[in-house]
Design a protein that fits this description.
The structure is a homodimer of 161-residue chains. Chain A contains four helices and eight strands, in the order ββααββββββαα. With 161 residues, chain A is an alpha+beta fold. In chain A, a hairpin with a 5-residue loop joins strand 4 and strand 5.
């Protein structure tokens, strides 16, 4: 299973993540942009994801909640900037529990033939906001989500493709 | 006349700008959020600003053009994140000439009594994007705009206030 590469340099309000996935980019792209697929992998296994809004166009809004076993909900939202495509996705990201704190994410899908290199670039308003996101358990949640994505892609990708 | 303080550290995809203005923050805030006032100061004097959209609410869009003497237009747009207030404005920013390149701006208005310290924090997707913005003449345009803002505030602020 591929490993996630995460860079968070001291003094820079940015997190760079990359991970190679074992599926062609058209299939990987679908798992990022089709709500029925996205809910199957984004975030830790213990949370149930529900997408309220997913208006995938330039200026369109998205919103989802993650609910834990106790019923506690964590809501996230943002707005797509430019129309998402195989060339990439640009979107804002907010946790509703910290209003006014916004980050800007750019996701790209590099074609490696039968594999895809996904890169996520997130920039934050400050290093403090970036660090708070990391300390909230970002990396563990990210890794667990990407492991689930590996499993989903194995189901979606024809054997021998 | 106050000077603009601009920080653009090497290797950090961010620009921090601060400037003290000679008016109470309620008046300064109006010049950032009322289209009739904003067009009187934002940008260099040689450009004519026209606001097409200015939907000042959470999730609302804005768009304006700057036109030079030759009739060439430069269009900019973005989306407000959170409802703008005296506590600050968070918005995205795009030059339509470079689609896919987005920055995230946070403006705050610090109350200094009869004066206001305005801080603008812009984060970019990369240091390269940040540097391209600076090389496009950002600082000169910013200073000229803020000089025009000083002039506008002098007209809006009661004498002796």
């Amino acid at each position: 299973m591929s490993k996630t590469h995460l860079v968070a340099e001291p003094g820079v309000p940015q997190v760079l993540v990359s991970r190679e996935l074992n599926a062609p980019r058209e299939i990987v792209y679908r798992t990022f942009t089709e709500p029925d697929l996205l809910v199957q992998w984004l975030g830790p296994r213990r949370l149930t994801m529900k997408i309220d809004t997913f208006d995938i166009r330039d200026g369109g809004a998205w919103r989802y909640t993650h609910r834990d076993e106790d019923g506690t909900e964590y809501a996230f939202r943002g707005i797509f900037h430019g129309t998402p495509s195989l060339d990439g996705i640009v979107q804002t990201f907010e946790f509703e529990g910290t209003p006014g704190q916004v980050s800007l994410e750019t996701v790209t899908f590099e074609d490696l033939g039968s594999r895809t290199l996904v890169r996520t670039n997130a920039v934050y308003q400050s290093v403090a906001n970036r660090d708070a996101m990391i300390e909230s358990g970002m990396e563990a949640g990210l890794n667990e989500g990407l492991d689930r994505l590996d499993e989903l892609l194995a189901k979606l990708t024809p054997v021998g493709a």
